[in-house]
Input
Amino acid sequence: MTWRPTALNVSFLTVVGWALFLAVLTGRVELAVVAVPMVFALVAGRRTGAPPRWQIDRTLSTTRLLEDECVTVTVTLRAERPLPLVELLEPLPPRVGLERGSNHAFFTLREGREIRWTFELRGAGRQRLRLDGPHLRLWGPLGLAAAESQHRAPATVAVYPRHAPVRHPPRPLRTQTFVGNYVSPTQGEGIEPGDIRPFAPGDQIRHVNWRATLKLGTLHVTQHHRERNADVVLLLDTLSEVGPDGETVVDVAARGAAALATAYLARKDRVGLIEYGGQPRWVRPGAGRAHLERLLDTLLSASVVFTYVNRDLDLVPPRILPPQALVVALSPLLDRRFVRAATDLAARGFDLIVIAVSPVPAARAAAPRSAVADVAARLWALERRAALDEYRRRGLSVVEWDGTGPLDAALAALGRRWRRRVLAG
Amino acid sequence: MMRLAAMVLLAVLAALPLAVRPSFPPVTWLATAALVVGGVGVIAWSVPLVTAAGSLVLIAYALALVLAGPAADPLAAIALGSILVLLLALVNFAGRARGAALGASVIASQVRQWLAVVGLGSVAAAVLTAAAAPLGVALRSATLPVVVIAAALGAVLTVAGVIALVAREASGGPMS
Output
């Protein structure tokens, strides 16, 4: 750690130079005397004493949080030799706000003393928040010399997309073989009662329906429906985005995908994810808490990657996009390639629901408010409504979501048509 | 609080030339200009502006001394130099600490440190002045060329020091 003169020396030298110059010019001794305390200060300011010694440690309250949640950063500094003035600064990455305290502080420490400096950071958008470690600057007397150092302790905080709970996610048309929460039409082990039939050898006594037995005079048993799970694949459109940083349509779609993944995994379904963009990525359908974190990690880095290469969903292996899966697409429907891909999926027999994330509010947030912008936004909204009606006529199940209201309310617009399809299936 | 203290120091600084030669327009204008520039510097916590104000005060002080021609007053000069040191140190610290959290006793410790340096500087100035008085009498005939040569040497060293400092300044990191 080396001490370096600060810019304040230039100011002192300038004033000293003026004083000496005027003293010579006017022949007045007072002007030379004015310079003496300043020259003394310049000399004293370079005396930094014994090399400073300290111990510094930085801890984070969590390494994972949701958007708009806070992480508390605690820096502990212990002086092994006196530190007359120490400045600490933790540089903040973009899209991170200070919720409480300050990321910049000054302290004075005596020998053997310790300070704990805390502040709270708020992640303003999904991201991997990287903190490299606090910078430390020791100040000499009068601020005329300074020595800098950095405590390198890189730490990453994953800021996952925030999501409101979805109570009624669209029910899949087809179920799979694993145990889940959906009542299957097939008979077997389960808790949902089905038909009643005469007792046959091998039936368990606990399945005997005593009321029917007494009424009909012979032993009858109650059959049960099996409870099965389903495969759900979330298809995230990252071909295009609109809106201010942190509130783009991709951010809104990621929040919707996170909410749906949480809801379906809570129902014991297997959930997969396909990021359909310039650089397609996917996560194989799976279940459980660890899988939810895998999905959220993938959503964390979902972003628009520009490329001239046009990749199709045909490239996605069947184990990622199982034929019986319910596909929930989240897209602003701004790119024709995604519309074509969704239409192809529906034509290939996939159960497809398209959640059209409206880009109008995001675009309005990014543009300055004006009467012309208002009219343009209304016209755009009308055009989108007409386009969505056209997609519905083509057979796609499309609901529009503006990203601000609850996803449940938007999904309720699927209405009877989807429920009828579920019952028919 | 720190801004108020800096304003008080600046006002005292600007009043010193006026105390030497009151109600003389050029001195008053220079002192007023120093007050305005320094006031803006204090409001913005800008060390360069306060340095400019300090330089203006020195020019006004020199002009007042030449015009009034009073007997040498080293105490006022020591006070002027000490206040300049305090003002520059205060503005520099306040500018650096703007928006930052200040730990307990930071300001008190800084003020103690500044006053110690200024006090020792004032004592040094008084000792040098006291020592220079008999020396000046003894070397009256040789004083002028020696002073001129020393001042020229001092000016050259000052410029060299400024250039060296500017060249050695860090190119700027997260803390600059």
Remarks:
- Strands of chain B lie at 101-102.
- Chain B touches chain A through 68 residues (CB under 8 Å).
- Chain B has a mean pLDDT of 83.
- The longest strand of chain B covers residues 101-102.
